[in-house]
Amino acid sequence: MKSMTLKSLLGTLALLSAPSALAGLERSQPLFEAALAAARAPGGAGGTSVEREELQGALGQFISHDDGTVDAPERAYLLDQSSHPAFFTGFTVDAQRYFTQFMELNDAATTPASLGAYPAKKTPEEAFGAGSLFIHRAHVLEGFIPYGTGGVANQLTLSTTYASSFEITGMGTFEPITEAQLREALSQRLIGTYATPQEIEQAVTYIREIHKNSQRIYLASWKNEYGRGAPGDLGGFVVAAVSSDRRYVRFVEVQTWAE
Questions:
Q1: Calpha distance 33→23 (Å, rounded)
Q2: Cα 56 to Cα 63: distance, rounded to the nearest angstrom
Q3: Residue environment code for 204-216, b if the CB has 16+ CB neighbours within 10 A, otherwise e
Q4: CB neighbours of residue 100 within 10 Å
Q5: What kind and span of H or E run contains 146?
Q6: In whole angstroms, how far apart are CA 187 and each of 133, 176, 183, 237?
Q7: Which of 55, 194, 214, 240 could hold 244 in an S-S bridge, CB 3.0 to 4.6 Å?
Q8: What is the pTM of this model?
Q9: CB 50 within 8 A of CB 90
Q10: What are the residue ranges of helices labelled H in the chain?
Q11: How far apart (Å, rounded) are the C-alpha atoms in residues 86 and 95?
Q12: Under 8 Å between Cβ of 214 and 241
């Protein structure tokens, strides 16, 4: 299966965050069903199989035509669909995994969990290696949801915590990604130069410390107008690595452009 390119992934993230006057299940359901039917058609990217990228585009209809979230009626519809074995006909293993990740992340919560975000315990040199490009292009915060407070690291919690803690002015919606897509994101041009393969692997290892084998890695685009107090805009992407119990989160924000 060909993985989604970073360009198409970030393009999807921008689309998912776009406002729309038409919202709700009555709008998103037919678009989702049409996209899924197209994916199952012989002329689809994976033939009659439904690949991860195709399913991501189909499920994105529940976000791009709303306020950036999956609401309760939309989630109920998806849960009902997934209760029928025939729904997964043609899904690849990666597509089925993406559906599970998407539903877990977008749980239609209306109140964010109490997730604090503080400077990482490791210095940038310890996290990325002395002299690494990411020391100058990345900003890291991490935190946890205290026991007894309820809630988990879902879409609402991650988006709310990131937006307030990093003081950004605009962001896309968090999307589940694979480690291959993480490497692709870290491999893109970072304001005039590229990270080395060794630097990329060091950053992946640092992010993996949190998600470990749970593969709870999420990506969103971001931008800041006026450079956080300085002239010009800047932006890039942010990775949220979430622990297996969904209580501990490490945000790794990477700047990729500035004006």
A1: 16
A2: 11
A3: eebbbebbeeebb
A4: 11
A5: none
A6: 11, 18, 6, 12
A7: 214
A8: 0.88
A9: yes
A10: 6-16, 25-40, 52-59, 61-64, 72-82, 93-105, 124-128, 134-137, 155-165, 179-186, 197-211
A11: 14
A12: no
The tens digit of pLDDT for each residue in 88-134 reads 999 999 999 999 999 999 999 999 999 999 999 999 999 999 999 99
Q: HEC profile for 98-134?
A: HHHHHHHHCCCCCCCCCCCCEECCCCHHHHHCCCCCH
Task: Give the pLDDT confidence score for residue 230 in this predicted structure.
Answer: 64
Q: What is the pLDDT of residues 10-61, one digit of tens each?
A: 544 544 444 443 458 898 999 999 999 999 998 877 788 999 999 999 999 9
Summarised one tens digit per residue, pLDDT across range 121-169 is: 999 999 999 999 999 999 999 999 999 898 999 999 999 999 999 988 8
3-state secondary structure 8-29: HHHHHHHHHCCCCCCCCHHHHH
Query: Tell me: the pLDDT tens digits for 182-230?
Result: 999 999 999 889 999 999 999 999 999 999 988 999 999 999 887 676 6
Give the number of other Cβ atoms within 10 Å of residue 197's Cβ: 11
Evaluate whether 1 touches 51 at the Cβ level (below 8 Å). yes
Residue carrying structure tokens 């685009």:
221
- Cα–Cα distance for residue pair 153/245, rounded to 1 Å: 9
The answer on pLDDT for 232 being more than 70 is yes
Q: How many CB atoms lie within 10 A of CB 70?
A: 23
Nearest to 159 by CA among 36, 67, 57, 62: 67
Residue 5's identity, in one-letter code, is: T
